[in-house]
Amino acid sequence: MDPADHLMWSVSSDGLVQLWASEGGGLVVVVRSFSPDIMLTETGKYVDFGDIQVHEILKDAVEKNILPGTGVSPQEFWSYLEKLLAEFSDENAALLAHRDELQAAIDEWYRDGCKEDQEKFLKRIGYLVEPPSTKTTISTRNVDPEMSLLAGPQLVVPVDNARYALNAANARWGSLFDAAYGFDVVPGRPRPGGYDPSRGLAVLEFAFKQLDSILPLVGAKWSELASIWVDSRGQLVASTTKRKSTGLKSPSAFIGYRGNASKGDLLFVHNGLHILTKIHRNSPVVSPYELSKVDSIVL
């Protein structure tokens, strides 16, 4: 098995090597490059593998947690990484330098008052290019959907800092209610001095419209629901305030749940992204909607 099938890497502008091992969905960061002029302050020992130095924490993570079961030995892995760095680091550095040139040109365009048409300007400096005239294919295998398909935030954190890793994982989730309440995606601004009930109601109506758009119901709207939960067969069931039974137009969008009908979570998927509706029947939110005790949290 070729180690390249399980490896993606990049080098940042400060020489920091970022290494992704796609097998098993793990994300690892190499914290030191082989460049002798790069000095980092992380504590711990580095282990020599040819011309590169690898932090012992990363070495243990790769050799004990990532490589087992892949058919790639530690010797193969580190040898191949060394070859990758030797072959592509100069090219990567040139690309990073070009990125700096593009950014400098864009900064100057803003300082000059944005006089030139933006699209024409970006095409002139090579930031925007014409689509290729022929179809292309990518042959890299075993790349996780997390990196190859999902357009979500990508955060790189030190593997030895649990707090950073936890914050990075949680950063993938955000409350739709919180975002809509504090920003102008919903017209107007909340009144100062604590929770604004009228603003909260507008946010709730906005959230229901979003759910109607991405998780449409059969013959009903989310704002009309009186209850929604899972039956004994694990199927999603819902009823309106007029006691009409309904469900999702696309039942496969419902993929999981936890808790119960009084306090629980329903997990949905739409275009590869996940939506978690948190149901809390004892919530203090006041609204004319029976199903007002729901928070939509979007991944």
Describe the structure.
The chain has 299 residues and is an alpha+beta fold. The chain has 2 domains: 3-147, no CATH class; 174-298, Beta Complex (Malate synthase G - maily-beta sub-domain), CATH 2.170.170.11. The chain contains 7 helices and 13 strands. It has a 5-stranded antiparallel sheet with strand order 6-13-12-11-10. Strands 1-2-3 form a 3-stranded antiparallel sheet. A 3-stranded antiparallel sheet has the order 7-8-9, with no helix packed on it. A hairpin with a 5-residue loop joins β1 (7-11) and β2 (17-21). The chain starts with 6 loop residues before the first strand and ends with a strand.
The spatial strand order of the largest sheet comes to 6-13-12-11-10
Structural class: alpha+beta
Return Rg in Å.
Answer: 25 Å
Q: Which residue ranges are poorly predicted, with pLDDT under 50 across at least 5 consecutive positions?
A: 1-42
Note the run of SSEs as H and E: EEEEEHHHHHEHHEEEEEEE
How many DSSP helices? 7
Q: Which percent band covers the strand fraction?
A: 15-25%
Helix coverage percent of residues? 25-40%
Tally of separate domains: 2
Mean pLDDT across the residues is 78
Shape label: extended
Profile the largest sheet.
5 strands, antiparallel
N-end to C-end Cα span: 34 Å
Number of strands: 13
Protein name: Malate synthase
GO cellular component, one term: cytosol
Pfam families: MS_N, MSG_insertion
GO molecular function: magnesium ion binding; malate synthase activity
